[in-house]
Amino acid sequence: MLMLSVFTARSQYIPSVQPPKYDTYLHWGGAFQHLDVALSLGTSGIGIDVATPLCDWAQLRLGYEFMPPFTKSFSVPIYAGQNNEDFEAMRNYIYNKYYYKMPKYVEMEGDISMNNLKLLVDIYPLPDNKKLRATVGFYYGSSKIATIATDGSAKEALSYITLFNKLFETVDDGDARLDMGVAGLYWGKFDKDITDGDGEVIHKQGDSYLMQPAADNTVNIPVKTNAFKPYLGVGYEFGLQKKSDKDVWKLSIDAGAMFWGGVPSMYTPDDFNLTKDITDIPGKKGDKIKLIKKLKIYPVIGVRLVRNIF
User: Fold this and answer.
1) Is the pTM of this model over 0.85?
2) What is the tally of structural domains in the chain?
């Protein structure tokens, strides 16, 4: 009888176990049960994304970002000869032969065209802090992030540059053209010796680089990176408005890096890479290309205005 009483007492004892306090947005078993929508603004552009929890310590984000159209105009000088010593002679030669007065500069434009899809996972490493996070994932978009090109006003001048240089092939002995150097758009100096397929040096380090136009008498220089760009960063969220125990509006701050595959390439119509083959590029365009050479990774800093939908 005594043993039965003890067994009965033990069977009726239930230990007091408090259920864990779950976050109302991120919690166990909460995959895809909630949804946030956000507008973003930062160095990677303007964007929109949606986010949903995967578990009590991770969130999935899917979105799209684009850089608003931005165009910068600049001038590039026309040179003839290594130090432009033949420019006036070339100008007079073309005028006397074709009645065209060669300008000293051509106009070009730089256009940014960066746009990407993004797939990111936010990881919340601190169980008692669902505001601080680390983020991993990737951006994917066009490999071309910008373009440098001549506008329509340059086409005639470029056509005469091409015509002038082709005269080397047909010029007669004694023609004044024999005493002049090659003409082109001056973009700086060669950073190293350039050789042909047989290993012969065709451009020495330090020689002036005179860019030749394409066959259609235009210049188009795409600025390219990898299309697939891994991302690593950190972030922090601030609640702006609560409804019961849930943050309906939030402000998110993100800082990280987009790994776009080393120094971007900038291949010219005559197949030289401005970021690797050419140095001492003059003017503001040179300053911008120096900056591009340093950006082996792209800094991503931005803010997101977040609205919880459900």
Assistant:
1) no
2) 1
Helix locations, the chain, DSSP H: 2-11, 87-98, 155-166, 283-294
Residue whose tokens read 């994304």: 49
Residue with tokens 């956000």: 38
For residue 9, tell me if it sits in a domain: no
Within-domain flag for 7: no
CA distance 184 to 235: 49
Q: Mapping DSSP to helix (H, G, I), strand (E, B) and coil, where does residue 221 land?
A: strand
Token pair 């166990």 is at which residue?
Answer: 28
Q: How many CB atoms lie within 10 A of CB 253?
A: 14
Any domain includes 86: yes
- pLDDT tens-digit profile of 234-272? 999 988 877 666 678 999 999 999 999 999 999 999 999
Residues 6+ apart with CB under 8 A from 175: 167
Q: Where are the beta strands (DSSP E) in 70-219?
A: 70-80, 105-112, 115-123, 132-141, 144-150, 183-190, 194-195, 201-203, 208-211
For the beta carbon of residue 118, count every other beta carbon within 10 angstroms: 22
3 inside domain: no
- What is the distance in angstroms between the CA of the first residue and the CA of the last residue of the chain? 58
Q: State the Cα–Cα distance between residues 150 and 147, nearest whole angstrom.
A: 10
Q: What six digits make up the tokens of 140?
A: 């994917």
Report residue 32 as tokens.
């895809």
Which amino acid is located at 37 in the chain? V
| Residue in the block written with tokens 């000293």 | 104
| Beta strands 265-266 and 201-203, pairing class | unpaired
Establish how many alpha carbons lie within 13 A of residue 171's alpha carbon, considering only the half-sphere containing its beta carbon: 16
Range of the structural domain that residue 38 is part of = 22-308
**pLDDT tens by residue, 209-232:** 999 999 999 999 999 999 999 999
